[in-house]
Amino acid sequence: MSNVFWVDLTRMSFDNSVAHKLGRLLRESGAAAGLSEGMRVALKVNTAEDGYEYGLRPGLVRAVASVAKEVTGALPTVCDGLKLVDYWKGGKGHSFLQVARTKGYSADTLGGGLVINGGFSGDEGNTYSCGRPDSELGGVEVGAAVCRSDALWVFSHVTLHPLFGLAGALWNGGFECLIGRERTRVLDGVDAYSFNGNRPSAASLQALRRRALESHLGVKSSVEGRITYVNALWDVTPQPEYFPYSEVPVVENLGFLASQDPVSLDAATLSVLEPALSVDGRERIRDFHEVLQAAESLGLGSAQPTIQRLS
Prior knowledge:
It is a single chain. Helix content is 34%, strand content 18%. The protein is an alpha/beta fold. The protein is globular, with a radius of gyration of 18 Å.
């Protein structure tokens, strides 16, 4: 079992605001353990596509970034990967940064410089082994902003996900940390942007999920396991951020969870989220229980979390 810390949104006050709660969550969960003055922290976030209206608010990112700066004395590098489809035909690097700015993402609002994880082209990184002889991928190319940092904090906006079941620590800390061409290799012909309701075959989905979990092993190797994961149960929508539209959130805001174990964190997130979902919502994430078991079998963590609740 691994510890997961959950801070809810009760007992709000001027000295116990959302920012205060996030700060306390990071400190209680041991995010600062092993960090020291001058170390470089990469803060992986999800930036929303133009048209998607429920992404992480910049103020929430700033609250997390401020804790990293407090510990290291240096601004963290806030990063995300280029979207695989350039809907607005603006040139990928340029359009990514432009969309991010229109969503309020800047150095001033985030508390750290915003960069494209794989460089302006989206394809700058280094290759790291997945560490298993039975790996289909063998190794993965991890984005430069992540692999050239001393530690990684993965701050995930939790959403339902049409392929993976749930977008949280496992998805954002693995697949989303890869460079663009590597994410295409993980997808291997599966359309991540299918809007017509046609799902890939069960065999294709199972293979994709396995590759995505293997990619997480490579990301962990790239930062020598110095990773803290934070899941935001805030405006949970049926679509992830890279969609160019969003339906309304499916549950009320349920707070934030943190752990050094991505499997335990996503398992705890599922246990908090699932009872609040409609029958349709529970059906959409039904397969994610199998994803958690597969992640555990690969050695990514424990699917039996111990939840410590804060307020």
